[in-house]
From TrEMBL:
This is Thyrotropin releasing hormone degrading enzyme. GO terms for cellular component: cytoplasm; extracellular space; membrane. It comes from the Eukaryota. Belongs to the peptidase M1 family. One of its GO terms (molecular function) is peptide binding. InterPro entries: ERAP1-like_C_dom (IPR024571), Peptidase_M1_aminopeptidases (IPR050344). The gene is TRHDE. One of its GO terms (biological process) is peptide catabolic process. It holds the Pfam family ERAP1_C. Residues 91-364 form the ERAP1-like C-terminal domain.
Length: 384
């Protein structure tokens, strides 16, 4: 266990088909790092002696048959193995049901066979395997081990997906990718592609409904989580019906002063409404933020205020975040982070962060660790 508890990080296994002999594969392992270029800069990341003893579970399959699970203990940098039933038309899948703490990469031929299987009949693979494939593909592409088109081709099957975990794996990867691509000239191609994958499931699932007494009409937990995930994707990427529904729910709340928005989609509706509608909606949400005493609702309302397309309102909110009588000190960095995630506020947040650095450094160092400010994919520095 020392290899797993004392060595930094975790490995990526790469499985390559042997072009000269059928039923033969080459398995390699290496330290998985998101920023490969960092490996050459940091001495502690240059340690190529890292080795793990890895229990690699595998199955072989084709359109009509999947083999029983086998296990290979991988102990060396590179190993050759013979796999029964592996021929030119068969795909190979490693780390079955994500039971191992490592990522798995394949040669491009195997990736394309897996993509073809998902499109033809995704249920041949278990829910956990489908989610794991999506998560691995996007992570490997982000780290430079895999071309970016592979994960985007994998999610072509999502319109047929009925389970929460694969959708969750996809959406978790798509939002950071969206933030990178929204600055590109051809962003609309990516945007329309995601909307196309989401549309069928969004129409099927619809929106959650309230009973006459205001309580939510209950479905299974997995079903509600799936519906929420799909609604969030639809609204975030600009589905017209999703935008219309969110606007209607916000307008009804304002006109009746009764909040009938289902609890599990309130954050989505608030944010979408603030981004689409006029300043009066922002002021209404601001008023509700001040009047509510529920901590969880207050947090949702504050985040919604950062969704505005109006740069003046975003600037106003950034400046108000420094007033501890208006916004709690522990919420100030959250305001900057969420404004930075808004394409209309990214440069505003960066300028504000630089201009107010002394104040932020003094007040936030008492509350936050340096990780929140500078390290990790959700840190302020990463987003800016």
């Amino acid at each position: 266990m020392d290899q797993w508890t004392l060595q930094m990080g975790y490995p990526v296994i790469t499985i390559l088909g042997n072009t000269t002999a059928e039923n033969r594969i080459i398995i390699t392992q290496q330290h998985f790092i998101y920023d490969i270029s960092a490996k050459t800069k940091a001495l502690k990341l240059q340690n190529n002696s890292y080795l793990w003893q890895i229990p690699l579970t595998i199955v072989v399959g084709n359109r009509s048959h999947v083999s029983s699970e086998a296990i290979i203990w991988v102990s060396n940098k590179s190993e050759h193995h013979r796999i029964t039933y592996l021929d030119k038309g068969s795909w190979l899948l490693g780390n079955i049901n994500q039971t191992g703490y490592f990522r798995v990469n394949y040669d491009l031929r195997n990736w394309r066979l897996l993509i073809d299987q998902l499109i033809r009949n995704h249920e041949v693979l278990s829910v956990s395997n489908r989610a794991g494939l999506i998560d691995d593909a996007f992570s490997l592409a982000r780290a430079g081990y895999l071309p970016q088109n592979i994960p985007l081709e994998i999610i072509r099957y999502l319109s047929e997906e009925k389970d929460f975990l694969p959708w969750h794996a996809a959406s978790r990867a798509l939002y950071p990718l969206d933030k990178l691509l929204d600055r590109m000239e051809n962003y609309n191609i990516f945007n329309e592609y995601i909307l196309k994958q989401v549309a069928t499931t969004y129409i099927k699932l619809g929106w959650p409904k309230n009973n006459f007494n205001g309580s939510l009409v209950q479905a299974s937990y997995q079903h509600e989580e799936l519906r929420r995930e799909v609604i969030m994707l639809a609204c975030s990427f600009g589905n017209k019906h999703c935008h219309q529904q969110a606007s209607t729910l916000i307008s009804d709340w304002i006109s009746s002063n009764r909040n009938r928005i289902p609890l599990n989609v309130r954050d989505i509706v608030y944010c979408t409404g603030v981004s689409l509608l006029d300043e009066d909606v922002w002021e209404f949400i601001w008023m509700k933020f001040h009047s509510t005493t529920a901590v969880s609702e207050k947090k949702i309302l504050l985040e919604a205020l950062t969704c505005s397309d109006d740069r003046n309102l975003l600037n106003r909110l950034l400046n108000l975040s420094l007033n501890s009588e208006v916004v709690l000190d522990q919420d100030a960095i959250d305001v900057i982070i969420h404004v930075a995630r808004n394409p209309h506020g990214r440069d505003l947040a960066w300028k504000f962060f630089r201009d107010k650095w002394k104040i932020l450094n003094t007040s936030c160092s008492k509350i936050y660790s340096q990780d929140i400010l500078f390290h990790g994919e959700n840190s302020l520095a990463s987003i800016l």
